[in-house]
Amino acid sequence: MSLLSGWHRGEHAAEGFAYPTYTRGSGPGVIVVHESPGLTPEVIEIGQHLVGSGFTVVMPHLFGSSHGPPRAWEAARVVPRLCVTREFTLFATGRTAPLAGWLRSLARSLHATAGGPGVGVLGMCVTGGFALAAMVDPVVVAPVVAQPATPLPLTPARAADVNLTPGDLATVRRRVADGCPVLGVRYHADWVTGTRFETLRRELGDGFIAVELDGRGHATLTDHRHPEAVERVTGFLRRRLLEVD
Prior knowledge:
Elements: E1 8-14, E2 17-25, E3 29-33, E4 38-39, H1 41-52, E5 56-60, E6 65-66, H2 74-84, H3 100-114, E7 119-124, H4 130-134, E8 140-146, H5 156-160, H6 166-177, E9 182-187, H7 196-204, E10 208-213, H8 227-241
Parallel strand pairs: 3-5, 3-7, 4-6, 7-8, 8-9, 9-10
Antiparallel strand pairs: 1-2, 2-5
């Protein structure tokens, strides 16, 4: 039986893109944007955890496998495809991924159906910065940046870049100054995240809540799932979406 058999399959089309979506739960909405190599069992598990925590969860399927364990070589095949696809920006600095407009549209649609004070967005690895791009839309009130990995940290400039245009970064700064914090989670020794947390501390000040875990893992909520990461992300989403006066 598919791990997604209890989820409602739909599709969201906007901004010239269309992707399958899987929805489950009740309560305020949270979008879980999967990492490479795809919508794996571990991603579905964190989605199911959030369903059990009181949220309506939507998981877009953007690339790679879905619901089955990825084959050993799949990540090696997926990443080169992401390097050339128009939806993502794995190398360019000072740019927002073109998929951001689609994700903001999905957030607005989810909020319209799920209600609540707004929507949470959890991005991971190659989609880590998507939570920042999504919060340009005020409907996103609980952005979570987990181990952000793009642009790939091949130079100091890329390692420090947070995958936003200057205009979008200015909007994020204003939203944080107006009271919308950003949660970031990574393993402290994870080189793939580059120096992005330092950039976010400088740009967002106390509005950036950094959770840096001991160890040399990468995928804080999935393959290298850490209990503190799960607890802090869940708590942040609850405070922002469920415990609002």
